[in-house]
Structure formats: structure tokens, C-alpha cells
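Give me C-alpha cells for this 185-residue protein.
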Amino acid sequence: MSIEIKDLSSSCGPHALEDLNPYWVNLMARHGSQQVTATMPRADFLAAVETECGVRISETPIPLAEWELELLGRRIVPADAIVIDRAELPEVTPSGGCSGAGTQYLSAAGHEIADTSDAARVHVYALALLALAEYLDARQPTPPVNEADVEALAGLIEQCGQTCESWESNARRLLATGRVSVTHE
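Here you go.
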């Protein structure tokens, strides 16, 4: 690319700017039969023009390699980040409900909020629910309790002569810890 810049305020005559490659430029100034050429980094030249003229220059980007183009469609996030694809968000619809004061409601996945709710407060609430969901996911799952096991354990406790108001509830609680199991013989 070559741009000719004419200085109308002095007798220096024309100037020329030439791109050498994406990183370097030549600035040439002619005065009579003399020519002076300065080679400088493109970024430095553009920064000087921006400063001197009080403008912002947006360069045309250098053509990218195929792998760079692939990365443009991706976002780099920290390894511990929670990334939610907007396509996974449930649809928000007017719920049709209305309070006695005439407040309209919005609904998403069976949950409602007033359409006058503050977005920042709803965001904090959503983050709190997400934190609780992450906590529950990280915990060891509680194994399902087999009712036959509850009855068998309750019978064993009762045979031992222990006194308790509800053998089944205690047996259920013990089995729910995952540390007690019953083997049927």
C-alpha cells in the first residue's frame, strides 16, 4: 500500500508512506532534490499519528492463519470457571399471572419473578442457587434406601431390646448415612 500525503502549509513538497510489511513502514519526505526516508515500526508510526492528530486509528487486521480463525470462535476461561451456554438457558415467558397490585410476572423453567425485579438482585440470587447446586453435586450422593432393608434393620434393633419411638425412622436414618448395610441371609 502506498499513500501520498501532500503538505499544503510549507514548501516541503509531497510526502509518502509505504507499508514494507505488516510490522514496518517507510515515511519519505522530499524537499527539492533531497529525499529523507525513515523506517519505523508500524505501531509506533500509528501511535504518533494518533497522538499528534488526536484521532483513533483502527487498522485492518493482518490475515489470520486457519488455527487462529478457529480460536476466534472460542473463549479462553480459567480452568475452574463455570461456563453456561446461553442456548442452555430456559426460555423466559410472561407467566400471565398478576398480583392484586397489577404486577406482571415472568416465568422460566417453572420459576416466577415480578417483571419489575432488579436484574442485579436476581443475578445474585441465581449465583446463590448455582453455588448450592455445585455444592450438592460435589457431595457424595446418598444411596437410595431399600424399604426391605429398613424393616430388617428395625427388626434387628427391636430384637436387641432397645427402646425407641420409631424403629423405622431410626433404621432409615442409619441406612441413609451410607455406612450401614443389611445383608439378607
